[in-house]
Amino acid sequence: MKITSAKVIVTCPGRNFVTLKIMTDQGVYGIGDATMNGREKAVVAYLEDHVIPCIVGMDPRRIEDIWQYLYRGAYWRRGPVTMRAIAAVDVALWDIKAKMAGMPLYQLLGGRSRDGVMVYGHANGSDIAETVDAVGQYIDLGYKAIRAQTGVPGIKDAYGVGRGKLFYEPADAALPSVTGWDTRKALNYVPKLFEKLRETYGFDHHLLHDGHHRYTPQEAANLGKMLEPYQLFWLEDVTPAENQEAFKLIRQHTVTPLAVGEIFNTIWDAKDLIQNQLIDYVRCTIVSAGGVTHLRRIADLAALYQIRTGSHGATDLSPVTMGTALHFDTWVPNFGIQEYMRHTEETDAVFPHDYHFEAGELFCGETPGHGVDIDEELAAKYPYKPAYLPVARLEDGTMWNW
Ligand code: GCO
Ligand code: MG
Question: What residue stretches are annotated with the Mandelate racemase/muconate lactonizing enzyme C-terminal domain (predicted)?
């Protein structure tokens, strides 16, 4: 069997998505997501100029060998661009293999470990009252787990507060918009949100919060400690994780569960956090961390330390990633939770898929492959539109972590 050709499809049904389509001499094709929010064109070039010429003619059944070829052969290993390109190839090849086997992908991975996959949605508001209402709407939609983010008085465009109700799209401008941050104001406000949420809805639903890399380790420990009475499911990205050791300090002071990893791109980014039991959930995803082949390795290492998966699932991860993630989540023994920010109807039309939402869970389908396709004709109607993630500055103008 041979890869006869491959192409990159860039489409923007409300936001940009980059999709790799691999064709074979058996007439079966596979698709993989390669979207990197705000840097899409870098991955397009990497795929078109440095990956596709190498894989045409290769046997698509040799998934592991092609992964190793693209990882070791790059010489300049790792990084978000390289690992997204490898992920896109990997997912497309798993899609092909499952189609050739006539099986939904989860069967190829080892079969079902669960029926449905618990997901969490994003509730947000400009202040505590609005956010409490938004969480109530997600409870009414049947969600068992809800992430809550609120605007903070005195902070311009605090992270995680969307402009719509169901959809939150942070890449909001043709050049990075500037948002503000002030940790003291956030530390004085965020705990009050969760106090109010528990007062209003009790403890029957899982509540999550994303620190989005904003706190120093000491501040993160302080926030974790202040949130303990509200029993969060997790506190995410509470401090930048390049220095994995920083989590030792946080761990010494709080038992609030910690989740990290949506911006990791290989197992090396998470290895020390996992082996030192410094986190409770690993957030790596199919698209950012080298595809099914590599995410499986990360999940297996995490399982040795009773750490569970909690894959990233924002709108900037295409339905191709969501569909593949659901097959992965249906199989993986140490599953924790799956993030699920609904895509818009126009996105869903470009990416027809067989997964569905019911009573707070997502269910992958039984279609052979990962169950997601791309309507190329419709995709062509939405040309690429430059869009950047914001940046964040402190009140004195210091550049901070968005
Ligand atoms: C999340 C993420 C998003 C990111 C976005 C960047 O937890 O869903 O933090 O909100 O900011 O995916 O493109
Ligand atoms: Mg996050």
Answer: 128-257
Q: Say how far apart CA 21 and CA 31 lie, in whole Å.
A: 4
Task: Give pLDDT tens digits for 146-170.
Answer: 999 999 999 999 999 887 666 678 8
Q: What percent of the chain has pLDDT over 90?
A: 97
pLDDT digits (tens, 9 = 90+) for 182-241: 999 999 999 999 999 999 999 999 999 999 999 999 999 999 999 999 999 999 999 999
Domains, the chain: 3-104 (3.30.390.10), 109-369 (3.20.20.120)
Measured by CA distance, the residue closest to atom 4 of ligand 1 is 314
Rounded CA separation 277/36 (Å): 29
345 in Cβ contact with 13 (< 8 Å): no
**Residue 181: pLDDT over 70:** yes
Answer yes or no: are the C-beta atoms of 7 and 21 closer than 8 Å.
Answer: yes
Q: Which residue do the tokens 């300049």 mark?
A: 76
Residue 87 CA to ligand 2 center (angstroms) comes to: 20
CA of 140 to the centre of ligand 1 (A): 24
Its pTM surpasses 0.85: yes
Q: Which of 159, 168, 215, 355 is catalytic?
A: 159
The answer to whether the Cα torsion of 171, 172, 174, 179 is positive or negative is negative
Residues with CB under 6 Å of ligand 1 are 37, 170, 210, 212, 262, 312, 314, 316, 339, 389
- The per-residue pLDDT of the chain, averaged, comes to 97
CA 360 to mean position of chain CA atoms: 18
